[in-house]
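Before the break, one more example. Copy the sequence into your notebook; we will annotate it together after we see the structure.
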Amino acid sequence: MRAAVLGATSGIGRATAIAMAAAGADVLVHGNRSAAAAEELSGTLRATGVRTRVLLADLGDRPAADRFADEAWRTWGGLDAWLHIAGADVLTGPGAKLSFDEKLDLLWAVDVVATIRLGREIGRRMKEQGHGAIVTMGWDQAETGMDGDSGAYFGATKGAIMAFTRSLALSLAPAVRVNALAPGWIRTEWGETAPPEWQDRVLREVPLRRWGTAEDVAGAACYLVSPSARFVTGQVVRINGGAVR
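Here is what the structure looks like once it is written out:
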């Protein structure tokens, strides 16, 4: 399998790239500015015996994203799996200091617009080649709602991605399958330093009584692009420990 993992330099994307390589897939590693992290990951994957290549691109820059998609497709003469895990970080680092409007604009460009434009383009090419699987990144609480500014901008943007995913699945069937991941409380970088009240909230809301891990989400991503999911398309798959809100 020839797979592209977008946003592979950290968190869920990195775990997904590692899981795909462990399953025997050749993995194209995408990152934005983290060239060192991308190369380090590529070396780790190559050591397992699979082919790998690093491509850097700012997905919020439309011409750059288009060039990335074209080069990704040409690298191995097509792709069998497109895992669009990449998203803007507005919770940690410089992104956390942005205003509400700035965060919304960044999420719309990097998460929503890039997912739609690249999904359409790669989907078109997969349909022409006769097969393929696409995975996008949603959020469980986009369907149920969450209070606060984070709930507003993540709910709106991830909800848009999930709606697009369902429509793209209909457009590309039967040749190409398209599904969305909807992670819940996953212990990524923000979760590692979340204040006690958030730690308590997770344990209250999650029936399995723990944070999810990047590997939990990666396992679902790998399933969705595998032959085991050959009758699964147009779905939003919650990976959230059974949380209902």
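The chain has a mean pLDDT of 93. The chain has nine helices and seven strands. Try to locate both features in your own notes.
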